[in-house]
Inverse folding.
């Protein structure tokens, strides 16, 4: 995570990838699980720009989980948004505490994606949602981005939408993948907790 340590101030200042309109769209996807006053988790949420937008759009509480202390220090904390340092693979958070999880442009950074999804299923309540926005590695531009990330020491473990849906299902979160724009796609799935799991 060395890159993100020194890049935190830049991400906070210039990393507004999502607009209020984008957050409104994401909020609509999550609204079936996140009612006003609900709780959601932004995993790998960096400096919290999207979290602040979602807190307003959903009238909900958002916890930003990020492994980099420098990123968490830049989260715009408020009554509705807090930052917590921790990894996706071992979250310092209680069971069944969240109505939904959102992961934007971060899933490919997780060093143990299976452990991360197990944590998603642990901290999200039964019937809660998991939303992952990531990038399809097949276009040439994405292959170059993957190479750049690997040169920076990042895992760069991107999945195609088909691979993502199969992977999530194997790890207990059933859902669907849908292409968005350019190489972006979304996975939206539901956590189902049963005695057999």
């Amino acid at each position: 995570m060395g890159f993100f340590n020194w890049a935190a101030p830049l991400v906070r200042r210039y990393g507004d990838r999502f607009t209020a309109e984008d957050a409104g769209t994401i909020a609509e996807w999550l609204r079936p699980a996140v009612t006003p006053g609900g709780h959601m988790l932004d995993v790998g949420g960096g400096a919290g720009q999207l979290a602040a937008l979602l807190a307003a759009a959903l009238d909900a509480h958002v916890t930003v989980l990020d492994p980099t202390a420098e990123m968490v220090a830049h989260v715009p904390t408020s009554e509705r948004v807090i930052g917590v340092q921790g990894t996706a693979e071992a979250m310092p958070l209680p069971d069944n505490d969240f109505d939904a999880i959102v992961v934007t442009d971060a899933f490919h950074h997780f060093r143990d994606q299976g452990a991360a999804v197990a944590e998603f299923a642990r901290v999200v309540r039964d019937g809660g949602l998991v939303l992952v926005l990531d990038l399809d590695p097949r276009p040439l531009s994405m292959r170059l981005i993957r190479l750049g990330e690997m040169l920076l020491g990042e895992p760069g473990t991107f999945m195609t939408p088909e691979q993502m849906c199969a992977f999530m299902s194997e790890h207990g979160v059933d859902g669907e993948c849908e292409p968005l724009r350019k190489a972006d796609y979304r996975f939206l799935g539901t956590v189902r907790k049963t005695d057999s799991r």
About this structure: The chain has seven helices and seven strands. The longest strand covers residues 124-135.
